[in-house]
Amino acid sequence: MQPETSTPRQRILEAAARMLAEQGRHALTTRAVATAAGTHAPTIYRQFGDMRGLLDAVASHGFDAYLAGNVARDRHDDPVDDLRSSWDAHVRFGLTHPALYALMFGDPGTTIASTAADRAADILTELIARIAAAGRLRVSEEHANAMIRAAGMGVVFQLLATPAEQRSPALSHAMREAVLAAVAVDAAERVAPEPARDPVVTHAVALRSLLRGTDGPPAAARLTGSEAGLLREWLDRLAG
């Protein structure tokens, strides 16, 4: 029985999330969700606009619950280790909530669940920016972001397509380390000479990341708008 204090919106979200987990996305029709929530279809339209709005809200609701219960943690001193932990959390999320994960990431040609997917992308962008600011990126932030997203989602969907008893955690670990080696400099690697790594690119990526901060470093205030724009253009070219 639903608590008396729950709102129609809460009841609809909880019913839709439960149906998504138990029956899959195909079960989420306006009439079925309204019945499960003990309300009427017009209430769904008033609260969410249409089914697309409901799906977006369901994905955000599920992702928020996951973040609150599973991903809250202290940062590591090493930003690359933070990215490792985030990768592992991403894979666990996908395997634990396959229907929700597919709703968020399964159809890149639609805007459904864009809010939750965008929030996940923001988390990755922040992690990569920390690595860039530490001078630890081998490639541009954009390139690192695209590689990690493609590899991470590919691993999750490959594992989901594999029978549970045949899934190997080694696949995620191997892919994670291969991608990190391609985009970032590990802590142990920093103590050894790296003749193949261009220090100009590394420092250009780091400086560009620092300039993208909300206010930028104090030294950046000495530049005019046109000077700052020109500097960013040069750094983009070097980092690319």
Write the layout of secondary structure elements.
Elements: H1 8-23, H2 30-37, H3 41-48, H4 51-71, H5 79-96, H6 98-105, H7 114-133, H8 141-160, H9 169-183, H10 199-211, H11 225-239
Helix pairs in contact: 1-2, 1-4, 3-4, 4-6, 4-7, 5-6, 5-7, 5-8, 5-9, 7-8, 7-10, 8-9, 10-11
State the total count of DSSP E strands: 0
Mean pLDDT over the full residue set: 83
- Sequence of secondary-structure elements: HHHHHHHHHHH
Count of helix runs: 11
For the biggest sheet, the summary is:
none
Helix content: 55-70%
Descriptive tags:
single chain; 240 residues; mainly alpha; 11 helices
Your description of this structure?
It is a single chain. The chain is mainly α and 240 residues long. Among the domains are: 74-194; 198-240, no CATH class. It has eleven helices and no strands. The longest helix has 21 residues, at 51-71.
Give a nutshell description of this structure.
This protein is 68% helix and 0% strand. The chain has helices at 8-23, 30-37, 41-48, 51-71, 79-96, 98-105, 114-133, 141-160, 169-183, 199-211, 225-239.
